[in-house]
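A protein record pairs a chain with a discrete description of its three-dimensional fold. The shape at a given residue is found from the number at the same position. Here is what such a record looks like in full:
>
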Amino acid sequence: MFLKSQNITVRREGSPPLSFPDLSINTGDKVLLLGPSGSGKTTFLSVLAGLLRPSAGEVFIEDGDFYAMSSSARDKVRGQNFGFIFQTLHLLPSLTLAQNIMLAADMAGAKPEAGRLDHLLKTLGLTDKAHRKPDALSQGEQQRAAIARAVLLRPKIIMADEPTSALDDDNAKAVMNLLESQAKETGAALLIATHDGRIKENFKTIINLENQMPKNNKEAA
């Protein structure tokens, strides 16, 4: 088992607590966290990624207690094993597309295998855009760059937060195809959090967080 969570609760000042179902993910699995705004999808991803310590419960990475590790140890595990695609793509405007893709590896102090960057640029149709900056790229090209950055180091799990909800049907399908193909190529698990019901057909394992949502919670999470 690569990632496992048990009895996770997150208490927030001024809001009802959020409790989450237990989760177990192996490399190669595809899991959808589905729920409306306020159900805690982003919060749950943050807990699973070691970015937000839960008020109660445990997260295990390959049988090691994630939150028993030091902050620096969690950072190292995260950098070596997790690939992230955020709602906001976080491409730095002063860097080229290629530099943005390399940024996560640089921050993790890791070096991708020889030819990995060129392979991803070619696979995702970005070779001729490698030296352009984000403001010279289309939204689709920026999204593909974010996917390339997430899978550069061949992570064991790819986490994507609302990767399709702002896209039309054709582009949503294209992004899902890219995510699934890259997860398959690297053998990574794919964990997507969304309220976009259009992509349910891509998943056998769907965890609906709507029932975890406090009845009086109207805030987005």
Remarks:
- The beta strands are 3-12, 15-19, 23-25, 30-34, 56-61, 64-65, 82-85, 157-161, 189-194, 205-208.
- The helical segments are 41-48, 71-81, 97-108, 116-123, 139-151, 169-186.
- The chain has one domain: 3-212.
- Residues 3-212 form a domain with the Rossmann fold fold (CATH 3.40.50.300).
